[in-house]
Amino acid sequence: xxxxxxxxxxxxxxxxxxxxxxxxxxxxxxxxxxxxxxxxxxxxxxxxxxxxxxxxxxxxxxxxxxxxxxxxxxxxxxxxxxxxxxxxxxxxxxxxxxxxxxxxxxxxxxxxxxxxxxxxxxxxxxxxxxxxxxxxxxxxxxxxxxxxxxxxxxxxxxxxxxxxxxxxxxxxxxxxxxxxxxxxxxxxxxxxxxxxxxxxxxxxxxxxxxxxxxxxxxxxxxxxxxxxxxxxxxxxxxxxxxxxxxxxxxxxxxxxxxxxxxxxxxxxxxxxxxxxxxxxxxxxxxxxxxxxxxxxxxxxxxxxxxxxxxxxxxxxxxxxxxxxxxxxxxxxxxxxxxxxxxxxxxxxxxxxxxxxxxxxxxxxxxxxxxxxxxxxxxxxxxxxxxxxxxxxxxxxxxxxxxxxxxxxxxxxxxxxxxxxxxxxxxxxxxxxxxxxxxxxxxxxxxxxxxxxxxxxxxxxxxxxxxxxxxxxxxxxxxxxxxxxxxxxxxxxxxxxxxxxxxxxxxxxxxxxxxxxxxxxxxxxxxxxxxxxxxxxxxxxxxxxxxxxxxxxxxxxxxxxxxxxxxxxxxxxxxxxxxxxxxxxxxxxxxxxxxxxxxxxxxxxxxxxxxxxxxxxxxxxxxxxxxxxxxxxxxxxxxxxxxxxxxxxxxxxxxxxxxxxxxxxxxxxxxxxxxxxxxxxxxxxxxxxxxxxxxxxxxxxxxxxxxxxxxxxxxxxxxxxxxxxxxxxxxxxxxxxxxxxxxxxxxxxxxxxxxxx
Length: 756
Known about the structure:
The structure is a single chain. The chain is α+β, with helices and mostly antiparallel strands. The protein is elongated, with a radius of gyration of 34 Å. A hairpin with a 5-residue loop joins strand 13 (532-538) and strand 14. The protein has helices at residues 2-13, 16-55, 115-123, 158-161, 183-209, 213-225, 230-266, 282-303, 305-309, 311-315, 326-346, 356-390, 394-405, 407-438, 456-463, 497-501, 595-608, 621-659, 661-670, 674-711, 721-740; strands at residues 58-61, 70-78, 81-89, 110-113, 134-138, 150-155, 166-171, 444-449, 468-476, 491-494, 506-508, 516-519, 532-538, 544-548, 553-557, 569-571, 581-582, 585-592, 615-616. The longest helix is centred in the N-terminal third of the chain and has 40 residues, at 16-55. It has 21 helices and 19 strands. The strands form 3 sheets. A 9-stranded mixed beta sheet has the order 11-15-12-16-10-9-18-8-19.
């Protein structure tokens, strides 16, 4: 305890510079702890979402009391958002429980809605057709997954839902039928967040714990020479590092509390939560308050070994030992694993992610990242020695000799930015893998609507919805059920050649104005020429249209998740009777499968026909919402990784500039110009950073490819993402160079070079 108090007295009594560095350590640690708390709380937010969803699920039975409560749940879409409506007909027998968020079940004609539905009814009166009855109250947060959810309980008569409803037994499942993020997808998200945030975070906290390392080591060496024991010297060192880390942890938890209050109310794209969902748990607080000081103590103990073991070398600034080569072994091990998986892809026998391969992929990515960090001092040392021996430039010689003397200082400066590029490569791979799993196979997304629920004016407006590239009508032939045997049916696509070309991969032989026989070799569909089919209509003069399949064919190649696959005929719109409405038909709209454009089309359809039932071919609205949540989480992870990387660079560069003021002053007094010193400072950062970024770019793309290969997707080599990543790397270099220029002060203070 005496040594600990001595460390505090030395800290606060060693001048303003040391106190500033202490609070800089605390401020840097608070940023890291805030990001750590955010990462640790994301699973709790998703778990709270799924818990409320499971608690409100109606438990039903096909058999029950004759006068039991009936319930019927409808999961539809309003625009790009799911809209759940629960119809309830309260009975006199059986269960009389109420769902979370309600104090009583709605009576016939009453409607309880979520706050977002309440706003929707005010802004879009046409949506009232979805909720027959009067609004009787709001659902409390206990009954909603998130604040923006569209949810309603509708009271109705038993006779209206008796043919489809089931008897209510209670509310509450042990699991959420539609989780916010699918468990398999959540594993990928956790892996990405760990790579994007936790790996750079550990380095950043280590950097903060080693701020002002040179001056602190000289103080510790002086104490050791005065007779203080090794353990006592370590306790003195722990006084500064541990207290700074503990103060930073407390500040970081406070920053997270404020951030949670702001973000939960403002919301993120596709992700909203209540403030209580993001409240700090005891485990999160314990990890932050205990783990961060423990990491600071370990780093401080490691860095103080030289001062306690050989204090004379520290006080006399002896030539440091070359960096350890063990980090290179970790890097080679990680690259060996990821290159092995890449080789399986090149040989045409890609490895799967089953069994031990799943662990090997993670191990390869982590070992590569950690090895990359630990190898940077060795690479910087080797580069500095080679350049210093061969260059004839005074600027490069000064810069490289300093990097040769302090390779660890270079690591603290450039590590955050190097890890940022490495993590960005992995983030690209995770996004590509998620897109392959959750999005349709083709670039086209189709929307099916029933024309019977639409007016002619609405159908015309739907064709003009932004991002709708084509529209058509699919009509089924009439079948005589009284005819003997199994009658043949056919589906015709009413569209022009241009519209059809926008909905398929390939088409050949189309002639506008003619009925064409559609042949798709990939599916084997080949209708027989000469067969005749009848299509019936409502309205207009003509009630029927007889179509004979012609011998002239049109070859197409439709997407697997497309309704065009089942069509046998292409009928031009001019062949239909005027003002006729096909009796058994579907209105088909087509657009891009990009999630942003899908949401835009769904919102446009809702603006034209708010109560129309929309079927997304090959995709559901819950899946679309899940994609939005995952992309938001990954974007949040990349932003946090960027903040951590930039913060680590700024903190390290600022601290190094303060530590080297005496050296810069000495060289300036000898006669070096300010421009020369700025060039030296820039070269000290840019050259090792360039080497680290190139290595991070190569290692990151290899790790990304190994992840994509074992994922089993179509895309295994992300060539399209390489230019963007290379451009980001150049931007990082430019920012680092500009950030290093102002670090040479204009004022020369000879007192800075006085002997201790």
